[in-house]
Amino acid sequence: MLIFFISLTLLILGYKFYSPFVEKQAGIDPTAITPQERLNDGVDYVPISPARAFLIQFLNIAGVGPIFGPILGAIYGPIALVWIVLGNVIGGAVHDYFSGVMSLKEDGKSLPEIAGHYYNVIFKGVMLLFTCMLLFFVGVVFIMSPAGLLSNLSFFEGTFLAGNTFWVLVILAYYFFATLLPIDKIITKLYPFFGLLMIVMTSAVAVALLFNAPHLAEVNDIFSYFHGSHDHGLLEPNPDGLPVWPLLFVTITCGAISGFHSTQSPMIARCLTNEKYARPVFYGAMMCEGIVACVWALAGIAAFPEGYVGLKAMLAQGGPGLVVNHIATSYLGVFGGIMAILAVAIFPITSGDTAFRSLRLTIMDAFNISQTMTNRLALAVPLLGVGYLMTFLDFSLIWRYFAFSNMLLSTSVLWLATKYLFDRGTFHWITSIPAVIGTAISVSYIATAGIGLNLPMEYSKPIGIVVAIVCLIALVMQHQKHLGKAVAKA
Predict the structure, then answer these.
(1) What is the three-class DSSP state of 427?
(2) How many CB atoms lie within 10 A of CB 241?
(3) How many CB atoms lie within 10 A of CB 281?
(4) CA dihedral defined by 123, 126, 132, 134, rounded to 10 degrees?
(5) How many CA atoms lie within 13 A of 211 on its CB side?
(6) CA-based, 20 to 30 A from 66: which of 28, 91, 302, 478?
(7) Counting beta carbons within 10 angstroms of the beta carbon of residue 301, is it exposed (0 to 12), middle (13 to 18) or buried (19 or more)?
(8) Is pLDDT above 70 for 444?
(9) DSSP conformation class of 17
(10) What is residue 392's three-state secondary structure?
(11) 3-class DSSP state of 40
């Protein structure tokens, strides 16, 4: 139990003490005119209160990511909690914060446009490719997963509602309207409520687990991980022999660090009424997502009487969605069952529609297309049409490409934030060190994954170390170069 409270405490302390330091480096100006005031168009640039902006951002970045990922990552043992906390504080929250701040400073532009400003057209093109890939795969994943859940509900059996195609078309129809309509017509009205719903559900599950779970992790389980054994026989790490590096870091992204979040930040950056709200909205939402991820990692580790054997069996039977349903109904009763259905059906839909909306914004920004209804319609129809065709592909294949593009984008955003801080002459190490680590993880994964070079898994650590050293040397050389320029100017 103690390790869980330590994890939550570190996340909160990170926001309390580290985020003001990060904010200081970003050059926030509370007197600056924000994009919504200068470019108000009644569609994407509209004012939103900070509380509402926080709840929308929280739900946009969360969906089922900080629920499903940590449940899958629980297979690695209590070390999953360590990754969530460290990844969130030094990587994910900083990543989300700067993706929002840079957009605020650049008229609410999407990250590829900002990359073109700070780097060059090549880096802009790379980021545009990664961003569009990720947004499209997120949209497709979050059509397929809720449609599959809803079509398999027992009380729909024998009716037309049991057809997967029916639910795919219903979800696509909703995405169509949510993508086209002004942000204050659907998203700002419904999503704060769903954001509160996720907070209530997570809090209820956490309390129930702390009082009733049979195998709560202890602090000793973290330290004993490093010499290969646990005090609890049911908490043996890596029961399948899967290496933590790089697979744990790919499995748990939402809650730790996720490139998808950077695609959502510009949408809210266009609506903030003051730059000073960037820290509670962007950094704060990511900190809260880390808490959600810790709760569900704890659930995967502790909730099954049979330990990992029970978790693995249920994952094999019905994936993380079934695990959510089992935990919620077992620990919260009928109320929990209803909450579980809402979690695995509604929450991914709220991320899917904003993914397609962000994809539309990103493409229109990149090619300077005006945001008229005709242009929005001309882009939304083919995007959603191709998305529908993609639902006929194997879900696991789509998920692998989603994970691949997610990693590459988060690392690219951290390098972009590093250039932003270099140009400002402030402490760039808060983004450059996480960027080095992210690059090492990304290259290690690509080198050993089936969709990459498919090298033996034992090569992953040496490859990661070499890549990290090379990046660090290049970073130090660039740092010295900037210092030299600063001295010369003085």
Answers:
(1) coil
(2) 6
(3) 28
(4) -110
(5) 8
(6) 28
(7) buried
(8) yes
(9) I
(10) coil
(11) coil
The predicted structure's pLDDT at residue 161: 84
What is residue 405's predicted lDDT score, i.e. its pLDDT?
A: 80
The one-character DSSP state at 91 is: I
Report the Cα 73 to chain-centroid distance in Å.
15
77: left (phi over 0), alpha (psi -120 to 50) or beta: left
Task: Check whether 123 has a pLDDT greater than 50.
Answer: yes
CA 225, CA 269: separation in Å to the nearest integer?
A: 41
Q: Which residues contact 379 (CB under 8 A, 6 or more apart)?
A: 360, 363, 364, 369
In 3D space, the residue among 290, 300, 305, 342 whose CA is nearest the CA of residue 320 turns out to be 300
Of the candidate ranges 207-216, 361-370, 452-461, 478-487, the one whose mean pLDDT is the lowest: 478-487
pLDDT tens digits, residue range 340-359? 677 767 778 888 888 898 89
Instruction: Give the per-residue pLDDT at 232.
Output: 43
CA 65 to mean position of chain CA atoms: 6
Q: Look at residue 415 in the predicted model and tell me its pLDDT.
A: 93
Tell me the residue length of the chain.
Answer: 490
Q: d(Cα 320, Cα 325) in Å, to the nearest integer?
A: 9
| Average pLDDT for 145-167 | 81
pLDDT of residue 103: 95
Distance CA 316, CA 64 (A): 18
Percentage helix, strand, coil for the chain under 3-state DSSP, each rounded to 5: 80, 0, 20
Smallest CA-to-CA distance from 441 within 74, 160, 91 is with 91
Question: What is the structure's pLDDT at 396?
Answer: 67
Q: Read off the tokens for 376.
A: 């929005």
Q: How far apart, in Å, are the Cα atoms of 327 and each of 5, 153, 366, 478?
A: 20, 17, 44, 50
* pLDDT at site 118: 85
| Averaged pLDDT, 171-198 | 81
Residue (of 340, 347, 313) closest to 65 by Cα position? 347
What mean pLDDT comes out for the span 318-325?
A: 81
Alpha-carbon distances of 469 from 41, 410, 436, rounded to whole Å: 47, 20, 9
Prior bond of 462 cis (ω within 30°):
no
Cα 407 to Cα 387: distance, rounded to the nearest angstrom: 21
Among 9, 15, 196, CA closest to 96: 15
pLDDT confidence of residue 235: 43
Contacts of 322 (CB under 8 A, 6+ apart): 314, 315
What's the rounded Cα separation, in Å, for the pair 358 and 446?
26
Nearest to 434 by CA among 460, 416, 459: 416
Tokens of 256: 């730790």
Which of 256, 291, 259, 285 lies closest to 272, judged by CA?
Answer: 285
Task: Supply the pTM of this predicted model.
Answer: 0.88
- Give the Cα separation of 283 and 99 in Å (integer): 10
Please tell me the distance from the alpha carbon of residue 278 to that of residue 284, in angstroms, as a whole number.
9
